[in-house]
Amino acid sequence: MKKFMYPGSFDPLTFGHLDIIKRASKLCDVLVVAIVTNSGKVPLLTVEERRMLIQEAIEDAGVKNVEIVSFSGFLADYVRNNGISCIVRGLRDIPDFTSEIPRAYMNKHLYEDVETMFLLTNIEHSYLSSSATKEIIYFNGSIKGLVPENVRR
Ligand code: ADP
């Protein structure tokens, strides 16, 4: 069984993340969406809230082969211990690429059987990030069109 993992903070889930989930889920048997909680960022939503919102959004999108997990440990260990063959990451721009490359090399160093696969964002989501979304929420702006409807509510 081909099991891929898409890790992130998803705080909150955006249309950019959902697009990567839909596309990556077509490339494997099971896509494990991993809510990683040791990012050092101050969270807006609890892990349980994030899990519930991702679950609803993927159901609304009709995606079936997704498992949602959360963990705060070491990604390479999680991947090794759970039979995951590929880590999926989304790329928006050159800064994303620059920060992703050393992580991919390090994960390969820590666990040589794992591959990292980058999916280029859909152009219409290339400016979208959870941090910009949080900033708009903070200033009571509209996040319509940035996040799935259930997340906006
Ligand atoms: P953010 O950078 O929005 O805080 P995360 O830490 O949750 O997001 O990122 C998880 C993964 O999703 C990373 O690989 C990130 O590059 C990717 N990602 C984030 N936003 C987008 C987007 N708009 N389009 C494609 N991929 C994205």
List the secondary-structure elements in sequence, H or E.
Answer: EHEHEHEHEHH
* Average pLDDT taken over every residue: 95
Taking all Cα atoms into account, the compactness measure Rg is 15 Å
How large is the share of residues in beta strands?
A: 15-25%
Largest sheet: 5 strands, parallel
The total count of strands amounts to 5
Shape: globular
Helix and strand composition category: alpha/beta
Strand order of the largest sheet: 3-2-1-4-5
Bound molecules: adenosine-5'-diphosphate
Low-confidence stretches: none
The number of helical elements comes to 6
Please explain how this structure is put together:
With 153 residues, the protein is an alpha/beta fold. The longest helix is centred in the middle third of the chain and has 17 residues, at 94-110. The N and C termini lie far apart (36 Å). The model has no long low-confidence stretch (mean pLDDT 95). The chain contains 6 helices and 5 strands; from the N terminus they run E-H-E-H-E-H-E-H-E-H-H. The protein is globular, with a radius of gyration of 15 Å. It has a 5-stranded parallel beta sheet, with helices on both faces. The chain has helices spanning 15-25, 47-60, 75-81, 94-110, 130-138, 149-152; strands at residues 3-8, 30-36, 66-71, 86-91, 115-120. Bound molecules: adenosine-5'-diphosphate. Adenosine-5'-diphosphate (ADP) binds next to helix 1, strand 4 and helix 5.
